[in-house]
């Protein structure tokens, strides 16, 4: 599997020293089209200015500007979050709320990925939300409700998860949950003969329609290589003899992956992304951006 497919980086290369280099490495690993990658680059470069207490360019100057040189280690500075919050307030005066929310989601996804790589020790984007009209935002309380913070966190959490290095089975499951927005139980109940891989959806005889996007479409054929029947998602070990035939792969003898095991694996994998160190639940993958938008 390529680096672009997994979101992984070359572990033999040292961590980048400069912020812009970290942006380049993140975008090289992200599964983005050329247009989206260009938008992400402009957005992420815009966040470099407040990190050194400078006001970012606006309007036409923003696209063609060259960001200041910023050591990536500056993101670990206790003042980094305050600087980003001030930059967020400055940007709010020049950008539409939707644009501001998208740019903040882009920053959150990148910093979460850098944290997972071990390049930074803390995530300065944690707790940042766009300021509400008439409020004086702070890094820990920005005038937004708990519900609003949860809504903003969902899409960029999912993006950070999908950029993790993980086994093929887990990556495929996470992409399918994210792209289909189906319940975990429903996805784990899928059998191989339910799938119409060419059309990126389930067949008519499957229980309920389900469709997916390019990430799942890329991974599913690799996961199913050599198997033509049985559960789509199976365990690492052979199933006990008492396991029903419908829940066992006829080729490998492995059983259907359970909700409990899938949840345990997800929580363990997302602990590095969670500032509290607890990890997230699979529900984080149910959030996604509307269709035809390049990012949350």
How would you describe this protein?
43% of the residues lie in helices and 4% in strands. It is mainly alpha-helical and 296 residues long. It folds into 2 domains: 3-162, no CATH class; 168-257, no CATH class. Strands 1-2 form a two-stranded antiparallel ribbon. Strands 3-4 form a two-stranded antiparallel ribbon. The longest helix has 21 residues, at 97-117. The chain is elongated and about 65 Å long. The two termini are 26 Å apart.
Summarize the structure.
Helices cover 43% and strands 4% of the residues. It has helices at 3-6, 19-29, 34-46, 48-51, 60-64, 80-92, 97-117, 146-162, 168-180, 184-188, 214-223, 259-270; strands spanning 195-196, 201-202, 234-238, 254-256.
Which key phrases capture this entry?
296 residues; two-stranded antiparallel sheet; disordered C terminus; 2 domains; elongated
Q: Biggest sheet, open or closed, and with what strands and sense?
A: 2 strands, antiparallel
What count of structural domains?
Answer: 2
By DSSP, the count of extended strands is: 4
What are the low-pLDDT stretches, counting only 5+ consecutive residues below 50? 1-10, 133-153, 289-296
Global shape: elongated
Q: Kindly state the mean pLDDT as a whole number? A: 80
* Major sheet strand order: 1-2
What is the H/E order? HHHHHHHHHHEEHEEH
Proportion of residues in helical segments: 40-55%
Give the N-terminus to C-terminus distance in angstroms.
26 Å
**Tally of helical runs:** 12
In terms of quaternary structure, what is this? single chain
Structural class: mainly alpha
Q: Approximately how much beta-strand content do the residues carry?
A: under 5%
Backbone CA Rg? 21 Å
